[in-house]
Fold:
Amino acid sequence: MNLFGVGPTEIIVVLIVILVLFGPEKLPDLAKKIGGASREIRDNLNTLNDQMNNALETSMEIDKARMIPPAGGDTTPPVVSENPIAPNADSASTEPSVLPPPPSQS
Structure:
């Protein structure tokens, strides 16, 4: 079983090196610091995830509110522009077209 390309033998060697470098009396403090740092990172990631979810839900609610037809019995469909680049431009606009004209068939 390899965990991130590291086998059990390599993990044991690393643990022995850590034990030799820090000694048995400093290992609990080291483990506590590593655990606290990982907990803080996880909490920050959860907070970020919650903020992103709230922003997405708010955006979806705004989009949904825009889709609801106005009250008052106005059942006319909204005007959809044929120009996706400038939706408010009328079709007789003098602005150049983004796409070239279709080739003429001779």
Notes: The two ends are 70 Å apart (CA to CA).
